[in-house]
Amino acid sequence: MGVEEWAIRVIQGMYTDVRSRVRVNGQYSEEFGVGVGVHQGSVLSPLLFILVLEALSREFRTGVPWELLYADDLAVIADSLEECITKLKAWKEGMESKGLRVNMRKTKFMVSGPGLDLLRDTGAHPCAVCRSGVGVNSIQCSQCRLWVHKNCSGIIGRLTANPLYVCPRCNGQARPIDGRPFTQVDVDGVMLDVETSFCYLGDMLCAGGGCELAIITRCCTAWGKFKKLLPLLTSKHVTLRTRGKIFNTCIRSALLHGSETWAPAAPDLQRLRRNDRAMIRWLCGVKPDDEIPIESLLDRLGIQEVSEAVRTRRLRWFGHVTRATSCINDTLSLTVPCVRGRGRPRKTWSECVRSDRRSWNLDRTDPHNKTEWRLGVKIAGRLLLTPVPGTPAADDK
Q1: pTM, entire model
Q2: What are the Cα distances from residue 126, in Å, to 146, 255, 341?
């Protein structure tokens, strides 16, 4: 008996002449028939829903990676807006012909590409051009009265005070703060919003690419988990090794969710380190002014440095993608049509993997051999936890 035949028999047994009641304040209502939906709370409901949806969409779906279907959430990917609208209409018409419908009010568009995201203000004094916080090496614009980074100012050489300086944004030479080419899309008379970012399976996707927004979101999530477990993590009755295990399991897992696919730049890694080290000092009862090296605290807790933890996850995921035979492996050779701008392009995920393999001497390790690859990554990660004799971390032991 095939899977579909088994599913049909189960559905016939579970959903034939189904009746239900509602309890309000201890009183039950009259019975009523249930003809639509699945049983809430049943362990078979997700499986039955997936089997039915897989059978209903077989006629008009094109498959991954261009269509990502998770339960009842669908992400459609296309090279152009017209193609994306065509695919959305095909799904809408196909679902409606089977008795289902697509909720157009919850449907959003996102146009991705360099400079198509939304610049967000950070720091006490945002830069007039890139909107990130400025430091000492900056200059003030005479028109908008905002400070500008040295790299964003367009000035060659050393910065000096200039009361006539005008920033690139006031000159009309900077990219717009809101990079969306349009804010709404018309699909059969329904106006759908164009977003600059959206959350999919716990990971934040940004229209301009990169993982900055994802890291910001994960840091906020990790701090929420950390504060919930704060009484346990700061208890004097719990050893530091046990706190390290709890922190690594509950906090780090939330902080690094989805990090296997990140290609972080130096500021992104610095943000991760800053938040991670703040939590580590808190649970160890150490203040920044105590001048205790972070390596010593990591050794006491028995955990990796956060950037090395990201590298471990990325290398293990690389081995899984390399060994896969489905569409997961095809994404490594997927070409994205784009026009290259001036300057060095953003560091890709593949470049991060090559750098990781060189740093951990895994160039000659075959990722197709699952046992050998995972053992090599595990050993390389453990070597980083072994303190060198004579260092503060070794002396603390």
Answers
A1: 0.81
A2: 8, 26, 25
